[in-house]
Write a structure and sequence with these properties.
The complex is a heterodimer of chains A (229) and B (265). Chain A is mainly alpha-helical and 229 residues long. Helices cover 48% and strands 3% of the residues of chain A. Classes of the chains: A mainly alpha (229), B alpha+beta (265).
């Protein structure tokens, strides 16, 4: 009749007896637990440290740009280089033509400047800047809505880049090609500063806090066609 | 924060003026990065957001009459806010209805291509990408960065050129305004129509031309008070935001599937 079941039960019983005996006899159970803990720690290390490190490739910006130095040189603050066009769009990272008025030729005896002038200004090549905050193609972001209408500060979303003496290292996700700024540095998803991460929910949560308007019929948040295109 | 009045963008297409030239279709495709293939003979496989249909009154010569019928997405509101056929069936939340603009969105990166929405849409306004887009050499450089491109396996449809609204709003913010002028946000097909058959605007704004022609009765799910104006398959109760104008009775009857002997309400 139910011989199969009985057999199975017997054998597990035997195994259980054997293993308890083993623990009592020579303490191999301690090793098993130790191996388990070691394996657990090892997989945590791989998952939380090794994989994220392998996932992102580090890239240097093509030109070592110094924001702090330039803020003393320009007349109009950030707007000298990052400004709004009349049609409402944002100029974003500056074009070579905005640098040329000062860097027509090398001014000081600075290596970085010499490199910039010889590689880009003299060859009339645009600098292929890496954009930390770059969002995926399907995202629509409007600086006009945040900076002009909602009067927000650049630091809220970008952190102190505008005051830095050197540009941070750019980290690119090897799988998606996205910048690390989007998904954030903290693997546990913790966020200390408002600029640590700029995922969909970071945008949507701030929107919910600031105007509390639900325009989507599918979610309790903004309609998809606010931030997407 | 000061609240801005909700919009309800809609369209009236004057079928008496439409010549069936197809400019709207061409303008739409180039505006919205709509893919095409070398061989477009099989219309079941081709992608178009705006499609012009031809209808006739089925009478023999010399009484034959023809009417061309442009069909974008109807951006249905349904019987209660946003209960459009496609939005209510999407299992992935890839399509959404905005109560601020009345526009039905499609997020291609979220869509996984089950095509449930296509089955639900009574207007065939949604199309499926059977292939990855292949642009003729060099053409990928002329794609618009304002509209995301689609890939094989997702559904797409007309967005009322929503990116033009986004752009227009940015310009308004730079000028220190919070509202748009009527002419600042117009769809590409509206502007391309050489006959001026398409009127686009806010159906909630009594000053807009589209409101004056369509005369929507918002208490009765937007049914038009203008006797010459009808909506496609109005009796299904989808509450579309695209209105059609025709002085010909057979056109209005055909637009809502009336039987020849049926009396129009």
């Amino acid at each position: 009749m139910s011989t199969l079941d009985d057999q199975a039960k017997e054998s597990t019983d035997e195994a259980a007896v054997e293993s308890t005996e083993a623990i009592q006899d020579n303490g191999t159970g301690g090793y098993i637990i130790l191996f388990f803990i070691l394996g657990f720690i090892a997989s945590l290390l791989v998952g939380w440290i090794a994989f994220p490190m392998a996932l992102y490739s580090k890239k240097e910006q093509p030109v070592a740009f110094n924001h702090a130095l330039h803020m003393d040189e320009v007349e109009n603050g950030c707007e000298s280089c990052h400004f709004f066009r009349d049609d409402g769009s944002y100029s974003g990272v500056p074009k070579l033509e905005q640098c040329i008025e000062c860097h027509e030729e090398v001014q000081g005896d600075n290596e970085n400047e010499a490199h910039f002038v010889s590689e880009y200004v003299e060859k009339e090549r645009e600098v292929p800047w890496l954009i930390y905050s770059k969002q995926p193609d399907c995202v629509f972001f409007s600086h006009a809505a945040h900076v002009l209408k909602a009067k927000m500060d650049c630091v809220t979303c970008h952190g102190p880049v505008g005051e830095m003496e050197s540009l941070p290292v750019y980290e690119e996700n090897r799988i998606t090609g996205y910048s690390r700024e989007v998904w954030g540095k903290n693997i546990a998803g913790l966020k200390k500063n408002s600029w640590d991460r700029m995922k969909m929910d970071d945008c949507a949560d701030c929107h919910k806090e600031s105007n509390n308007k639900v325009t989507s019929v599918q979610t309790e948040k903004d309609a998809c066609f606010v931030c997407h295109k | 924060m000061e609240q801005v009045k909700d919009k309800k963008f809609g369209m009236v297409i004057d079928l008496d003026k439409c010549t069936g030239c197809g400019s709207c279709m061409v303008a739409c495709m180039s505006e919205n990065n709509v893919p095409f293939r070398e061989d477009e003979t099989d219309k079941l496989l081709s992608v178009a957001w705006m499609r012009v249909y031809k209808m006739t009154n089925r009478k023999p010569y010399p009484d034959t009459e023809v009417c061309y019928f442009p069909r974008p997405c109807m951006h249905c509101e349904g019987q209660h806010s946003g209960h459009s056929p496609c939005v209510s069936v999407c299992p992935a939340v890839a399509t959404d209805y905005s109560t601020a603009t009345g526009i039905v969105s499609q997020i291609y990166t979220r869509c996984f291509g089950c095509r449930y929405c296509m089955a639900a849409c009574p207007y065939h306004a949604r199309v499926f990408n059977w292939f990855d887009p292949v642009w003729p050499h060099g053409m990928e450089k002329s794609l618009s960065p304002d509209v995301s491109v689609r890939m094989r396996g997702v559904v797409e449809k007309c967005s009322f050129c929503y990116h033009r609204y986004q752009k227009a709003m940015e310009k308004a913010y730079v000028d220190g305004r919070k509202e748009l002028e009527e002419n600042e946000y117009q769809t590409s097909c509206t502007q391309a129509c050489p006959a001026g058959a398409i009127t686009f605007g806010d159906l909630n704004n009594t000053h807009h031309e589209v409101y004056k022609i369509a005369q929507p009765d918002h208490k009765h799910h937007g049914k038009s008070k203008n006797p010459k104006v009808f909506r496609l398959l109005e009796r299904l109760g989808t509450n579309p935001k695209v209105y059609y104008l025709s002085s010909r009775k057979w056109v209005r009857q055909l637009g809502d599937n009336y039987r020849p002997d049926e009396i129009m309400k």
